[in-house]
Design brief:
single chain, alpha+beta, Butyryl-CoA Dehydrogenase, subunit A, domain 2, Butyryl-CoA Dehydrogenase, subunit A, domain 3, 12 helices, 12% strand, globular
């Protein structure tokens, strides 16, 4: 057994023992998640002084697997854990950390990302949303787009321009923005899949306190690189992004009996990679498990997944010593390749039946939907072109493209 496997086994045993002493299905979800957070199990890969246990990023997967095995309600998920909490912990003041991060770890609030705009997608630094100081607060006017889960969130990671006279990468600030207020309109964007994961968000003289300005005025671009690092490592191959159970009052979990909430199944998500065991079961069901082309593609998918995990482990190991240019971008590109190939294999196996998009279809549209949504993986979290530019310029030292996204070096990585 490898050292990693032994470490995972020890952690799984320790978590199982903790659950045997602490899991109580009669608690409310609120009470249970407070108990989980106090034990450092919501984010075990965070340093101890960040509310975690100082373990590897893989530990989050091990912990959640142990929770599932025991039948206990999982720790909360969400973009707050993935991006907002580590960004605020890296750049926020002690007061901001205490006020904003603790509720995330306890699952009390949900967050979304308010970065992209209609005219500022890959060229994020070209954003035009304005923040104007008004005493001890800021007045926000503008528009964001492609904001995942904005309707379910209480807070947004908002990038706004606080100084239009400075170069475009300067004069940007990062705010912890409360969404539930007058002047904020959220409009869902219906996708080809029929779902509306993404949203437009409009700001008409909305307000955010100066106390919620993270990292100081004009430092938003540097702080954004931290947010993007955690986003790309989280959704990239070998990452540990956890979306379910949903945090916050709009997620519908808080206030429920924890035992009842534990019985709620995670809804199908087109953003989730189709699992290899699911494809193997599908191949057996359609009598394609001996098809050499299907088997070859599955082997390729398994290879992509495994090398993605190894790459993530290398990034964590190097991250303790120095900034690691390109690793997060490689992981994001690898995940795009995995998402697309997994959907392709599913459609190859199901054949024409895979296109029947209805509950009574052979696979209920599972792979038709995944195939359509998989194209989005080349865009969300930074386009494939941006990822390749960053890898080429920062990791390989190639000449900078005139039109490339001029992101600054990442501010900080997790130690593990």
């Amino acid at each position: 057994m490898s050292d990693d496997a032994e470490s995972d086994a020890r952690l799984a045993d320790a978590v199982a023992a903790w659950l045997a002493d602490n899991w109580d299905p009669e608690l409310t979800v609120d009470e249970w998640w407070c108990r989980v957070a106090a034990a450092g199990l919501t984010v075990p890969h965070f340093p101890i002084d960040w509310g975690g246990r100082g373990l590897s990023r893989r530990s989050q997967q091990v912990v959640r697997a142990a929770f599932r095995q025991s039948g206990a309600l999982l720790p909360p998920g969400g973009l707050g854990l993935l991006m907002a909490a580590p960004t605020i912990l890296t750049h926020g003041t002690p007061e901001q950390v205490a006020r904003l991060v603790a509720p995330i770890l306890r699952g009390e609030v949900a967050w979304c990302q308010l970065f992209s705009e209609p005219g500022a997608g890959s060229d994020l630094a070209g954003l035009r949303t304005r923040a104007t100081r008004d005493g001890d607060r800021w007045i926000i006017s503008g528009q964001k787009v492609w904001s995942s889960q904005a309707r379910e969130a209480e807070y947004g990671m908002l990038l706004a321009r606080t100084d239009f006279d400075r170069p475009k990468h300067a004069g940007i600030s990062w705010f912890a923005f409360p969404l539930d207020q007058p002047g904020v309109t959220i409009r869902p964007l219906r996708e080809a899949t029929g779902h509306a994961i993404f949203n437009e968000v409009f700001f008409d003289d909305a307000v955010v306190d100066d106390a919620d300005l993270i990292g100081g005025e004009g430092n938003g671009w540097r702080i954004t690189q931290t947010t993007l690092l955690f986003e790309r490592t989280g959704i990239g191959a070998g990452g540990s992004m956890a979306g379910f159970p949903y945090p916050g009052p709009k997620g519908g979990m808080l206030g429920l009996r924890a035992g009842a909430a534990a019985a709620i199944e995670a809804p199908d998500s087109t953003t989730k990679v189709v699992a290899l065991p699911e494809l193997i079961e599908l191949a057996q069901r359609f009598h394609r498990n001996d098809d050499p082309v299907v088997r070859q593609k599955m082997a390729q998918l398994a290879t992509f997944m495994r090398t993605g995990e190894w790459m993530a482990q290398r990034a964590r190991a190097a991250g303790a010593k120095a900034e690691v240019a390109g690793f997060a971008n490689l992981g994001k590109l690898a995940q795009t390749r995995i998402v697309k190939l997994a959907a392709e294999i599913g459609m190859d196996i199901a054949g024409p039946a895979g296109m029947l998009w209805s509950p009574d279809g052979a696979v209920a549209g599972r792979f038709a939907e995944a195939t359509i949504f998989a194209t989005a993986s080349s865009i969300y979290g930074g386009t494939d072109q941006i990822q390749r530019n960053v890898i080429g310029e920062r990791a390989l030292g190639l000449p900078r493209e005139a039109s490339s996204d001029r992101e600054q070096p990442f501010a900080r990585t997790l130690a593990n």
